[in-house]
């Protein structure tokens, strides 16, 4: 955990532990228009998440791991920034993780990759 | 292909899929993830802090609970708009709250076993049999590239039902790891295809 060791985690989120958005660990998050001035105004944890997602679309788990912010806090902060239009939670292209088109594409991709 | 969605947003609509790699400590999960991942497996102490109500309904603990879990994950970019994530984490029962979170939204799961210590993977098999809707297969990791036990014996020992596919793999070998992952996805396709699904398979 690289985050601030002196702050209990949910102080960063004003005590909130949930978010309205459904965020799987593998859900991709990106920043539509990176705004350095906005980044400057953010607390350190939110800032590092915002900056990281501003470079490339990454999963919730990657953002959490690379920024050293716990998964729960990462979810809340992403939810906040998404609600303000500062982050995009990439919508699911497929209706279900069992969608046959998705499964076929992943199998095909893996075989190409092997 | 041709599934790219609306061009109205700036970043391409990249979407992601997930396969969970379960199994006991030291059965080769990190090796398997590493042999296919395009990034070195990220080993993170995923620091889970949630209200205990949502973390641990079984113990009835109140207040807040913190669980620290070492988790590995890898990533494979399969297409411009499609990324596959592999998640592996210890399968001990005490991590089950984490497992719910990990497996939610997964397309398939692979329970990796080591025949020298099958018992370390019992909890993971139990979890996917009883507590998860994610279709799973069991893969025997051949540590020295050799099959020391017949698969039928392993199936017996794990008391796997006939419908759970059991395969052998060499987690160190990319081709073998990929074959294991595709076997899991193929199993999901069979389990969930319209008309053959007994009951409702929750997807979320």
UniProtKB/TrEMBL annotation, chain A:
Entry-linked InterPro entries: DUF742
Origin superkingdom: Bacteria
PANTHER family: DUF742 DOMAIN-CONTAINING PROTEIN (PTHR36221)
The name this protein goes by in its record: Uncharacterized protein DUF742
TrEMBL record, chain B:
SUPFAM superfamilies (alphabetical): P-loop containing nucleoside triphosphate hydrolases
Any one Gene Ontology molecular-function term assigned to this protein's record: GTP binding
Keyword Phosphoprotein in record: no
Domain of life: Bacteria
Keyword annotations: GTP-binding, Hydrolase, Nucleotide-binding
Family membership noted in the UniProt record: Belongs to the GPN-loop GTPase family.
Protein's name in the database: Signal recognition particle receptor subunit beta
Organism: Murinocardiopsis flavida
Lineage, opening ranks: Bacteria, Bacillati, Actinomycetota, Actinomycetes, Streptosporangiales
């Amino acid at each position: 955990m690289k985050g601030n060791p002196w702050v209990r985690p949910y102080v960063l989120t004003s005590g909130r532990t949930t978010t309205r958005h459904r965020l799987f660990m593998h859900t991709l998050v990106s920043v539509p228009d990176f705004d350095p001035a906005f980044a400057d105004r953010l607390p350190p944890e939110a800032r590092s998440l915002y900056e990281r997602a501003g470079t490339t679309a990454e999963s919730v788990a990657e953002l959490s791991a690379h920024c050293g912010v716990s998964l729960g806090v990462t979810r809340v902060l992403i939810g906040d920034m998404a609600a303000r239009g500062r982050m995009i939670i990439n919508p699911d292209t497929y209706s279900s993780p069992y969608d046959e088109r998705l499964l076929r594409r992943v199998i095909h991709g893996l075989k190409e990759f092997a | 292909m041709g599934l790219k969605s609306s061009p109205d947003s700036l970043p391409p609509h990249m979407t992601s899929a997930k396969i969970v790699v379960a199994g006991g400590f030291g059965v080769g999960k990190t090796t398997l993830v590493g042999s296919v991942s395009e990034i070195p497996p990220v080993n993170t102490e995923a620091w889970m802090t949630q209200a205990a109500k949502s973390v641990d309904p079984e113990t009835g603990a109140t207040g807040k609970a913190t669980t620290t879990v070492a988790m590995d994950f890898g990533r494979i970019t399969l297409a411009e708009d499609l990324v596959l994530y592999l998640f592996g984490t210890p399968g001990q029962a005490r991590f089950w709250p984490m497992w719910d979170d990990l497996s939610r939204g997964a397309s398939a799961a692979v329970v990796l076993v080591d025949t020298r210590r099958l018992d370390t993977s019992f909890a993971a098999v139990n979890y996917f049999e009883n507590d998860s809707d994610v279709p799973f297969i069991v893969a025997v990791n051949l540590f020295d590239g050799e099959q020391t036990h017949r698969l039928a014996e392993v199936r017996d020992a794990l008391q796997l039902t006939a419908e759970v596919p059991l395969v052998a793999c060499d987690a160190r070998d990319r081709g073998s790891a990929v074959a294991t992952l595709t076997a899991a996805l193929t199993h999901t396709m069979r389990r969930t295809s319209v008309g053959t699904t007994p009951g409702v398979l929750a997807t979320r």
